[in-house]
Design a protein that fits this description.
The protein is of the alpha/beta class. It has 2 domains: 2-121 and 271-323, Quinone Oxidoreductase, Chain A, domain 1 (Alpha-Beta Complex); 139-262, 3-Layer(aba) Sandwich (Rossmann fold). The protein has 9 helices and 16 strands. It has helices spanning 42-49, 114-134, 151-162, 174-182, 196-203, 221-226, 250-254, 272-287, 304-312; strands spanning 2-7, 17-21, 30-40, 58-59, 63-71, 83-87, 97-101, 106-107, 142-145, 166-171, 187-190, 209-214, 228-236, 259-261, 295-300, 319-323. Helix 2 packs across helix 3 (151-162).
């Protein structure tokens, strides 16, 4: 028997169900993967709640690592027995076994274990496209990373530091502040006690930062714009606190001819060559030791609902994985 987490209606974590599913042979272009570990990401909650609508009933989850059990016709890059990991669509990673488009799979380096592979792909490739594609961080740049102790945050802080940036991070507690410092954050702002804009201006001598990476959304959007230097870039890539409200683009002019982008990973990895390039950059910094992946929470896959509750209550740090 094979089981997976599915949901038949949108709502809170209680809509997630542990159900028996049928997984057949892979069709042309597919590979069947038996998961050794599955990643948890905030975007999973957007699918569950309906913020990002899905046809129902639906599987859930965008990230996993495991072993290829079978391949369909026309698949040549991936072979039975390969250790693989992936991030991105189609949804359905919360499963013991699944069939995946083979062109979305990346072969895991021998030195990266399955748990690390499942924990790093979506958050790591998100950090990769933000830091190396959306706004290419240069030595000497000051950057602001919100939720610095979260999954993307810990990876992005380490990577930005390795690139020679001055890294400023926001967190909610002293414990998270210490975690961020241990992972490359030069200056940590406790947003529950400090004025983010005031502190950023103090740290940068009044100039502001070159780029803000904001996965929080509504609660930090206005302050993020005010932290930028003239012609700085705001990359808003998540909605942890809710969707950003509509605003007048003239605001960007008034605040110094700012740039604003709302990127997503899929648009940076659509082509196979782009996926391979970003994946290799991520593997290089992990294998090279510049970025360490922190798997700080582990749950049985059948307890996905509890993991969602903890994630939304901001009880988690770093990466979280499920064990099928």
């Amino acid at each position: 028997m094979t089981f997976a987490i599915r949901f038949h209606q949108t709502g809170g974590p209680e809509v997630l169900r542990w159900e028996e599913v049928s997984v057949g042979a892979p069709v042309a272009g597919e590979a069947r993967v038996r998961h050794e570990a599955v990643g948890l990401n905030f975007i999973d909650t957007y699918h569950r709640t309906g913020l990002y609508p899905m046809p129902l009933p639906s599987g859930i989850g965008l990230e996993g690592a495991g072993i290829v059990e079978a391949v369909g016709e026309g698949v040549s890059d991936i072979q039975v027995g390969d250790r693989v990991a992936y991030a991105g669509g189609p949804v359905g990673a919360y499963s013991q076994v699944r069939c995946m488009p083979a062109h979305r799979l990346l072969k895991l380096p021998a030195s990266i274990d399955f748990r690390t592979g499942a924990a790093m792909m979506l958050q790591g490739m998100t950090a990769a496209y933000l830091l190396r594609r959306t706004c290419r961080v240069q030595p000497g740049d000051a950057v602001l990373i919100h939720a610095a102790a979260g999954g993307v945050g810990l990876i992005a802080c380490q990577w930005a530091k390795a690139l020679g940036a001055t890294v400023i991070g926001t967190v909610s507690t002293e414990a998270k502040a210490e975690l961020a410092r241990q992972h490359g954050c030069d200056h940590v702002i406790l947003y529950t006690r400090e004025d983010i804009v005031k502190r950023v201006r103090e740290i940068t001598g009044g100039e502001g930062v070159a780029v803000v990476y904001d996965g929080v959304g509504k609660d930090t959007f206005a302050a993020s714009l005010d932290c930028l230097r003239p012609r700085g870039m705001m990359a808003t890539f998540g909605n942890a606190s809710g969707a950003v409200p509509a605003f007048d683009p003239l605001t960007l002019t008034q605040k110094g001819s700012l740039f604003l982008t709302r990127p997503k990973l899929a648009d940076y990895t659509t082509r196979r060559d782009e996926l391979l390039d970003i994946g290799q950059e991520l593997f290089n910094v992990v294998v090279g030791g510049q970025v360490k992946i922190e798997v700080n929470q582990t749950y049985p896959l059948s307890e996905a609902a509890q993991a969602h509750r903890d994630l939304e209550a901001r009880k988690t740090t770093g990466s979280t994985i499920f064990l099928p």
